[in-house]
Design a protein that fits this description.
The complex is a heterodimer of chains A (about 260) and B (about 775). Chain A has about 260 residues and is mostly helical. Chain A contains 14 helices and no strands. The chains are: A mainly alpha (about 260), B alpha+beta (about 775). Chains A and B meet through helix 1, helix 3 and helix 13 of A and helix 1, helix 6 and helix 22 of B.
Chain lengths: ~260, ~775
């Protein structure tokens, strides 16, 4: 335990303590300013918008991702081609961000393929990146990239379920659906919590694509907390960043604690 | 089992301890800047760069300074032990018998007679070279014997007084450089890139006797001595050749790559010297050595530690001495020696760090000037976006901010493209008010410009140069232009009057027009940190009116021509210069002749632009120029905004550097990057550089030949610019990169009609609201 505790202490706990300290001081002059930074961020429209968008994004993506991937994993689990399909599903994770960005541009830009198709059908063109449609483009991109990985996680959980137990249920006359609902799903609870945490963390990684396609100031609906942090750092607003980081850490901590309670209870 | 367990626990504890201690040490190492105090801090700069304990460096010493020298094209040691400095332009040479301390003027009798016999400036010496035994070769053109078939004449003068006149050379293949070797061979480089060898021991009177090579390359042709042979460069490759070889050897790729990079980066001024073992080069980048066929170029002395790095002077010749030292001649007539001193620090003890996102030639000049006045300080000028990699402004600022937060930031900041307001708000920049008061005691400044960034909190940054947004109009148009709307009215009405082809303001795209109009309207877009929506709407509305009139009669050929020029600039890595080229009044002014523009608008970047404008006034007497109308009045465009790091540990040196930067010596030189803010330097800045007049001519699209005689602006013109234009400037163009990018990106869609003006204003408002809210 000592190496782990030492490592975590030095590389995570101590830097975070410094972040907490900085949140009570001004950025460059280092003057104590109490809770002013916290008051500032909660009066900051950009911060509130970024938090709202980040929660909205996670709230939209996570349920879709978890349900769709669970459905797919169940289909694959009962399929003869499961090995082949598993490999294919991991393909999006192997696509470099630069390629994803290029595809985004080819598809969704004003002169992109989608608008070309709309024109061909005599339909009005859409500004996919510069309008509220950008949010759904981002959601789609996140789902495309993460579904395969999540399916693999679900299937790893399913692989751990005893076949003997399932066979016994089938002998007792349980249908495949009944087996899935009453035996497989309850046994996937530990994996479910892992998937939620990983998927939530992965939802932050979509910032790379959003930033490269739409820049530091994208359409309001895809302005995420990472945009704000990136821009604050450029302006040396480290005090605001520290206060916001402490608030977000508190929020994550509360959610993680709640999940642990669910896991234990 | 228990023993094994105990050993495992001990190993675990030891490893943990090592991890803990090394981490603490790592943290400790990064924090030297804030823990060490006093004299030990000297030489660290704000960055905490530890003073260099390594010893040994080439030390630069001024050996001799010539008065009225023309072009010191060659330095060489003669067999009699004297040092010769050859002045090609004046057809003279100088000899020193005391190791370069003093020189005696010598003449080339034939050449002197020729020069005295012909009219003033009629004899133009193209090449003059000396062999170690004192033999001289020269080639000249006598313009007084003009006509269509001007020939170049070449002579060889032997030490015993023998004079040989060679056959005349056709001007098209005339000699531009030559090397006269000890073995009696002369190698000549012609204007077309042909290198010939000529053996003075034979009796041939044909100089272009034997062609060694016909070069392709980029045209940056140079030739230098290499033992019993020569080194030739074509800007891309290096060729070695001597008489024993059947053809030149260009297998030394390392040297070739170095030459290509150095010549493209720092211009053509480069000198060579070679010993049996090594080849040496001197250029703006510094002094380098290379062993033929070796795997590296060794930097002996960086340009930043010597006159070589000064952008206002160029290396013209060098010699490698037997004792390992070097003599290098510059185009200002100075000869410096560079001698290795093993006892001095490899870099000066004190370090002053200057940082800018973009390169700045005035800062480079100040670095060189400061180094002369403060040899104990090493000024390190770091450029964030060099153009050699894919670093963006955002990447560079993030890296800079990390350093600033760690207390290791640069001492002097060139703030162009940086978030100035944020830096001021965070207390990152030093209040310069008190320092500026002291600096002002030494010179008078244009306070209206210098203090344009003054706020009630203090003066945190100052512009070092500025451009003047201006528009050229004509008395005959009788247009009253005072703001953007009246400018739009004038453009629309002029378009109705002038139905011929061509633009009104000289723009060829929506982006280009917005860049022009942004200059004098941008200060109206923000007020107390809030976006003025009405101003943006008015800007786009009037810009759209201008754009529609502007684009009406542009021919496709002209548009394509412009695109080709900009593509060329982008492909040659000069994309940052596209905006400057679009906005400079020099090229737009010439376009008045073929009527491709009626009221050129842009900015004056210096005397080069002003002389074109005033010369055009000589051709079109009714031509006038005035400040460019926009949504704000009295607008100038700063180029180079300087601030000092409030946490700098080298404040004294930083202030001294600021003093140098704003001093008369630096400000008085026109480097084409803006007018000086130092009013005392204005006269020096405007001083006529060249007595000769020249004419520029070009062919119009219809094949007509146009020409413009370029003359230096008169005293009256220079005074008028100062009194009527510069004195009225007090508002800087908005330099906020996010604002500019947002308005230009969205504005183009409004101008081209892809979006309505209202939609574009909403888009700008949305993006800027986020930006300003942050």
């Amino acid at each position: 335990m000592i190496p782990q505790v030492t490592g975590v202490g030095i590389f995570i706990v101590l830097p975070f303590c410094d972040v907490v300290r900085r949140s009570f001081f001004t950025a460059m002059t280092g003057k104590f300013c109490g809770f002013r930074n916290y008051l500032t961020i909660f009066q900051n429209e950009a911060f509130l918008l970024a938090i709202k968008n980040t929660i909205k994004f996670a709230g939209t993506c996570l349920p879709i991702l978890i349900l769709v991937s669970l459905g797919l994993s169940a289909m694959i689990y009962f399929s003869r081609w499961s090995k082949l399909m598993k490999s294919a599903l991991l393909f999006p994770m192997a696509v470099p961000t630069a390629v994803v960005v290029l595809v985004w541009k080819m598809l969704f830009y004003r002169e992109g393929m989608l608008n070309g198709m709309l024109s061909a059908l005599s339909l009005p063109q859409q500004d996919f990146i510069g309008s509220s449609a950008a949010f759904f483009v981002l959601v789609g991109s996140y789902l495309w990239k993460n579904i395969g990985y999540t399916v693999v996680l679900w299937m790893a959980g399913m692989a751990g379920i005893s076949h003997t137990m399932l066979e016994a249920a089938r002998v007792d006359g349980a249908s495949e659906f009944r087996c899935f609902v009453s035996m497989i799903l309850p046994n996937l609870k530990p994996v479910f919590l892992t998937i939620i945490i990983l998927s939530f963390l992965n939802s932050f990684k979509v910032f790379r694509e959003a930033y490269l396609v739409a820049g530091a100031y994208p359409e309001d609906s895809i302005y995420m907390i990472q945009h704000l942090f990136n821009n604050w750092f450029l302006k040396l607003d480290v005090d605001k960043m520290a206060a916001a980081a402490v608030c977000i850490a508190g929020l994550f901590g509360a959610v993680a604690h709640k999940l642990n309670l669910v896991k234990e209870g | 089992m228990k023993k094994k367990y105990i050993a495992k626990r001990i190993a675990t504890a030891v490893l943990s301890g090592i991890l803990l201690v090394s981490s603490i040490l790592a943290i400790g190492c990064g924090n030297t800047g804030s823990t060490e105090k006093g004299s030990s801090e000297k030489g660290k700069g704000a960055s905490g760069t530890s003073s260099n304990s390594a010893k040994g460096r080439y030390v630069e010493v001024l050996k001799h300074s010539f008065e009225n020298v023309g072009d010191l094209s060659q330095l060489l040691w003669r067999t009699d032990g004297s040092l010769a400095a050859v002045d090609k332009k004046n057809g003279k040479f100088y000899l020193s018998t005391d190791n370069g301390e003093s020189f005696q003027e010598e003449s080339v009798p034939v050449l002197t007679e020729l020069m005295q016999g012909s009219g003033d400036g009629a004899i133009e010496v193209h090449s003059l070279s000396m062999a170690p035994d004192g033999s001289i070769f020269f080639a000249y053109v006598d313009w007084s014997k003009g006509g269509d078939n001007v020939m170049q004449i070449a002579w060889i003068i032997k030490p015993d007084g023998t004079q040989i006149e060679l056959d005349p050379i056709p001007y098209a293949d005339s000699v531009s450089e030559s090397v006269y070797l000890e073995n009696g061979l002369i190698y000549t480089l012609g204007m077309l890139g042909n290198v010939y060898s000529y053996d003075t021991k034979n009796s041939s009177s044909t100089l272009l006797d034997k062609k060694v090579i016909e070069m392709q390359g980029t045209g940056n042709y140079q030739i230098g001595a290499w033992g019993e042979g020569i080194i030739i460069t074509d800007g891309e490759k290096a060729y070695y050749y001597d008489s024993s070889m059947s053809e030149p050897d260009n297998s030394d790729e390392i040297f070739g790559e170095f030459l290509a990079k150095e010549l493209s980066k720092n211009g053509l001024s480069m000198a060579f010297a070679a010993t049996k073992e090594s080849i040496y080069t001197a250029s703006q980048g510094g002094l380098y050595s290379h062993v033929k066929g070796g795997s590296m170029m060794e930097e002996l002395l960086s340009g930043t530690f010597s006159c070589m790095g000064d952008p206002t002077i160029s290396v013209t010749a060098m010699t490698a001495n037997e004792d390992g030292s070097f003599f290098i001649a510059y185009d200002n007539g100075e000869i410096y020696s560079y001698t290795y001193d093993a006892n001095v620090s490899a870099t000066p003890e004190e370090v002053l760090q200057v940082y800018g996102l973009y390169d700045n030639i005035t800062v480079r000049q100040a670095v060189s000037r400061f180094r002369k006045d403060h040899p104990e300080v090493y000024v390190k000028f770091e450029v964030g976006i060099s153009g050699e990699d894919s670093v963006t402004a955002s990447d560079a600022i993030q890296a800079l901010n990390t350093r600033l937060l760690a207390g290791e930031g640069p001492d002097v900041l060139l703030l162009d493209g940086m978030p100035i307001d944020s830096y001021i708000e965070k207390g990152m920049l030093e209040d310069l008010s008190a320092n500026m008061e002291k600096i002002k005691q030494e010179s008078s400044f244009y306070d209206n410009i210098l203090e344009a960034y003054n706020t009630k909190e203090g003066l945190f940054c100052v512009p070092i140069r500025f451009y003047i947004p201006a528009i050229l109009t004509n008395e005959e148009y009788k247009k009253d232009m005072s703001d953007l709307k009246s400018l739009a009215d004038a453009v629309v009405s002029l378009r109705e009057e002038k139905s011929e082809e061509g633009t009104i303001l000289g723009s060829y795209s929506a982006e280009e027009l917005l860049q022009i109009l942004y200059l004098t309207s941008s200060p109206a877009f923000l007020e107390k940190g809030k976006l003025k929506e009405d101003s943006i709407k008015e800007f786009l509305t009037e810009s759209k009116r201008i754009f529609d009139a502007e684009q009406q009669n542009i021919t496709e050929e002209r548009r394509e021509g412009r695109k080709r020029m900009e593509t060329f600039l982008m492909e040659s890595g000069k994309n940052t210069k596209i905006e400057m080229e679009r906005l400079r009044l020099q090229t737009k002014t010439i376009d008045l002749l073929p009527k491709e523009v009626w009221m050129p608008a842009g900015y004056l970047t210096g005397m080069d632009d002003l002389k074109y404008v005033t010369s055009m006034k000589g051709q079109i007497p009714t031509l006038q120029y005035q400040p460019m109308p926009g949504q704000s009045e009295g607008v100038f465009t700063p180029n180079g905004i300087i601030g000092l790091n409030a946490k700098s540990k080298e404040k004294e040196n930083a202030v001294a550097f600021l003093n140098t930067l704003l001093g008369k010596d630096v400000q008085g030189v026109d480097l084409g990057d803006g007018f000086p803010v130092n009013a005392d330097a204005y006269e020096l800045y405007c001083k006529k550089l060249d007595d000769s007049l020249y004419s520029t001519s070009f062919e119009g699209e219809d094949g007509t030949l146009y020409s413009l005689d370029i003359t230096w602006p008169s005293e009256e013109e220079i005074s008028t610019l100062k009194d009527t234009m510069i004195s009225g400037l007090h508002v800087p163009t908005q330099t906020d990169a996010v604002l500019k990018d947002t308005i230009l990106t969205a504005g183009q869609l409004a101008l081209t009609g892809e979006k309505t003006i209202e939609d574009c204003v909403d888009e700008i408002k949305q993006k800027m609201s986020l930006y300003l809210a942050e």
